[in-house]
Amino acid sequence: MYAIVTNNEITKLITNPKSLVIGDVRYPAKIFSVWSASELNAIGIYEVVTDSTNFKDEKWYINTNESYAYSSGTVTRSWGTATPKAHADSLWTQADSDDGDLPDDKSVGDIKTRGLKYNLIQTLKQQVAGILSDTDWYITRNTEKSTAIPSSISTHRDAVRTKQAEMETAITNASDTPALETLYTYTEQEDGSVTRPLGELPTLES
């Protein structure tokens, strides 16, 4: 990405190199590939430098709109301070009711929007359901034919549910959004393995 700077002000952003007119001169698109940075700068074209310091994972944060600034020969693309997404559910309040924003089918104290914790736990439940579905046929066969369920299958299914409970507790007990993010962040351990504090759901060994 490039920017055109006139009198120390960004006047245009160029997302794709193309022919353009600056002053009374038309320049071909190939100047972006064959000219040096200093040659482009001389006619007011600067490659945009991205500063991602404030940009955070959008799974956990709401980022501000990107902004562009020119200073000392550099055009920088950056973001303001990100806001953590709500980790807990928000509720309809009396203020919402007083302002006329409360839907007819809702009451003060009802859930307004679901927070990260609820959504993460729902995703976990779906993952567990998917894992258990792979061995559900053993349960069906036992019900219909009285064929014994292998102990390894019962042990696996119990382990999945036990780990699910542990993971749900960890999510529920997280104090804020950064704490939730930490649970899901993978880091390399001394033995070379890559793990996360939340752990993983058990898999069935073949």
Please tell me about this protein's structure.
With 206 residues, this protein is α+β, with helices and mostly antiparallel strands. It folds into 3 domains: 2-83, no CATH class; 85-114, no CATH class; 115-206. Helix content is 36%, strand content 22%. It has helices at 31-34, 37-42, 94-98, 116-133, 136-145, 151-173, 177-184; strands at residues 2-6, 9-14, 20-22, 25-27, 45-50, 61-62, 67-71, 74-78, 83-84, 90-91, 111-113, 187-188, 194-195. Strand 12 and strand 13 form a beta hairpin. The longest helix has 23 residues, at 151-173. The chain is elongated, with a radius of gyration of 28 Å. 7% of the residues are buried.
How many domain modules? Answer: 3
Give the low-confidence spans: none
Helix count from the secondary structure assignment: 7
Radius of gyration from the alpha-carbon trace, in angstroms: 28 Å
What does the average pLDDT come to?
Answer: 95
Report strand %: 15-25%
How far apart, in Å, are the first and last alpha carbons?
Answer: 50 Å
What is the strand arrangement across the widest sheet?
2-1-5-8-7
Following the backbone from N to C, one meets helices and strands in this order, namely: EEEEHHEEEEEEHEHHHHEE
Class by SSE composition:
alpha+beta
